[in-house]
Each structure stands twice: as structure tokens, then as C-alpha cells.
Design brief:
alpha+beta; two-stranded parallel ribbon; two-stranded antiparallel ribbon; 4 strands; 31% helix
Length: 122
């Protein structure tokens, strides 16, 4: 709906293109692999990898954006972490819906983490 209001075109999806060298394969697989290798070489004891929900869903919409297979490359990096021999944590954040999440205050008032607003009073 928003895209139709912006462009005046109904039923048309925006096209996504990745700048050269910044395709999901380069960022989400090759870049992540380089970080994992560097961490292992440095003797990191516990590797925390922030990935994305949907990595095991080949038909997920995010894989169609710019033909980048974003989630498939992220999943490949997750598998590399798992096989690395390091102790690891993989975080799968989902979509951030601004209306239902609120930033937790920090001393300088910059958001540090997010908490669901309907859980903040619990």
C-alpha cells in the first residue's frame, strides 16, 4: 500500500539491487566466514553470531530480494559456525515492529537493547 502511494503504481513491488561487492554472498557468507576464521585463529572461546529468522526456509521472501538469497547465505554461515569447533550462540532476530517494541533507556539516552512493550511491565 505504501509503495503504491509513493509511486502511484498498484501491484508493483520495488526492485532491490545490491552494490557490487556488497551482495549477500559477499557480506553474509564470505564476510561472516572471514570473521569466524579470525575469531578461531585468535582463540575466541565463545562466538556470538547474529543471523536472521528464516534461514531454513528457502522460499522465504527475503531470498527473492535482488536474487540475493540473503537467508540462504546467512544459514551457510551459521552452519560454518556450528562446524567450527568453537562454543557459539546464534541469535535469530525477527522483524522489528516499532509499535510493539520500545528502547530501553541507557545513561546517555541511546537505545541499548529492545524489549517488547507488552512485556516491559512483567
Amino acid at each position: 500500500v505504501l509503495w503504491a502511494k509513493i509511486t502511484g503504481k498498484e501491484g508493483v513491488r520495488p526492485e532491490f539491487k545490491f552494490p557490487e561487492g556488497q551482495e549477500p554472498k559477499a557480506v553474509d557468507w564470505e564476510g561472516a566466514k572471514a570473521q569466524i576464521d579470525a575469531a578461531k585463529a585468535a582463540g575466541v572461546k565463545h562466538f556470538v553470531f547474529v543471523s536472521s529468522m528464516g534461514g531454513t526456509q528457502p522460499d522465504n521472501f527475503l531470498n527473492t530480494m535482488g536474487n540475493g538469497n540473503i537467508l540462504l547465505w546467512k544459514r551457510k554461515a551459521e552452519e560454518y559456525v556450528i562446524e567450527s569447533g568453537m562454543t557459539y550462540t546464534i541469535i535469530h532476530p525477527g522483524g522489528d515492529v516499532c509499535q510493539s517494541y520500545m528502547p530501553l533507556p541507557t545513561p546517555n539516552r541511546a537505545p541499548l537493547s529492545w524489549q517488547r512493550s507488552d512485556e516491559s511491565s512483567q
